[in-house]
Amino acid sequence: MLKGSSKGFEGLKAEIIEKNLCSYCGACVSFCEHLELGPESPILKEECSLDKEGVLKCSENGTCYDVCPMTETDIEGLEREFLDSEGMRDERLGIYKKLIAGKTQIEGQDGGVVTSMLVAGVEKKLFDCVIVAERIEGYNAVPEIAEDVEEIKKAKGTKYVQCPMVSKIGEAVKSGKRRIAIVGTPCEIRAVRKIQSVLLKEVPQVEITAIGLFCFESFYHDKFVSKTKELLRIDPSSASKIQIAKGECVVTVNEKRYKTKIANLEEMVRGSCHYCDDVTARLADVSVGSVGSAEGYSTVIVRSERGEQLLDMIEFAIGEVNKEEISKIVRFKKAKVKDRT
Predict the structure, then answer these.
(1) Angle between helices 186-198 and 75-82 (to 10 degrees)
(2) How would you classify residue 50: left for phi > 0, otherwise alpha for psi between -120 and 50, otherwise beta?
(3) What DSSP string describes 50-71?
(4) Domain boundaries in the chain?
(5) What is the chain's pLDDT, residue by residue, as a tens digit (341 residues)?
(6) How far is Cα 58 from Cα 155, in angstroms, rounded to an integer?
(7) What does residue 197 show for φ and ψ, rounded to 5 degrees?
(8) DSSP letter at 265?
(9) Is beta strand 317-319 parallel, antiparallel or unpaired with respect to 98-103?
(10) Helical spans, DSSP H, in the chain
């Protein structure tokens, strides 16, 4: 993460936005009335009260700055605060209690584990709502607050373009939701934990369950769609599934698979991804991805008691996990980030 002495939105703008490092997670706008999301980054829509004399500060450096996943972050402190202190600590995977592969009866991106956990959480009243990414026209995605099973199932499947998931936490809290689940990439989960630590520490009645998705990098929507059309001669908006694994991007349209190497999409990658070395969402209650498991299974890393409770709610077939395969991609990502910094 990046260090800096500037504070508030001006600091965020100078250190993150203008350097093309915004992850577009939406954390900054979630609880700040002075900001709104533009097409690629937050915009100050009115004068920030932090700049006025004698005004009580919203947080130490301004909410937008303090909750941004790309400003300086005490990762170990957040691990101590939110994860299981008695879990195993692995240099590549982070803290975890369980590492398994699972396949459920729900058809999802891989083993359907994320959708199954969300459905179980709502049906068994563990969650008042869940924040999910819903695919919309043009292979785009928007964050939605889902309160029933059908809304959750509608959002199943991974989207590889930016979607400001964390922007919905404030709306959920303000609407009276107190037990909230959110699905997000590593940077989004990092932002969630910073919101909990900075803004919700004294509000114990708000419980957030963080489900992290493995992520090597995400893409700018317009660039991804354009490049996919150029390389594969297909429109990704018509795809039934897009899968990124083992160095390839595979797009399925009308049951036919089209492939291109990930290296061909390098210029579509969001700038923030070049400086994020977290592949497995180390701060989540439970992390889920495809790396390390057989086709049709999800790799599941349980990191907290809350994550363990959630996994125990669902039925699934258990498979084997190749831990070294996960470690290999983490090492590769860390080396890639190191080369940039």
Answers:
(1) 70
(2) alpha
(3) GGSTTPPPSSTT-HHHHH-TTB
(4) 8-218+269-340, 222-261
(5) 444 444 889 999 999 999 999 999 999 999 998 999 998 899 998 887 766 655 556 777 889 999 999 999 999 999 999 998 787 899 999 999 999 999 999 877 677 999 999 999 999 999 999 999 998 887 888 999 999 999 999 888 777 788 999 999 999 999 999 999 999 999 999 999 999 999 898 888 999 999 999 999 899 888 988 999 999 998 888 888 888 878 888 999 988 999 999 899 988 999 999 999 999 999 999 999 999 999 889 999 999 999 999 999 999 999 999 999 999 999 999 998 988 77
(6) 34
(7) -75, -35
(8) G
(9) antiparallel
(10) 8-12, 27-30, 63-67, 75-82, 113-123, 149-154, 167-174, 186-198, 221-232, 305-311, 323-340
Identify which of 64, 26, 67, 35 has the alpha carbon closest to the alpha carbon of residue 197: 67
The closest alpha carbon to 186, from 70, 100, 30, belongs to: 70
What's the pTM?
A: 0.91
CA distances from 88 to 51, 159, 306 (A): 44, 30, 16
Nearest-Å Rg of the Cα atoms of the chain is 19
Task: Tell me phi and psi for residue 95, to 5 degrees.
Answer: -80, 135
Under CATH, what is the fold of the domain 222-261? Nuclear Transport Factor 2; Chain: A, (3.10.450)
Tokens 């577009």 correspond to: 24
Distance from C-alpha of 71 to C-alpha of 40, rounded to nearest angstrom? 18
Structure-token pair, residue 289? 């991805």
- Distance (Å, whole) CA 72 – CA 4: 8
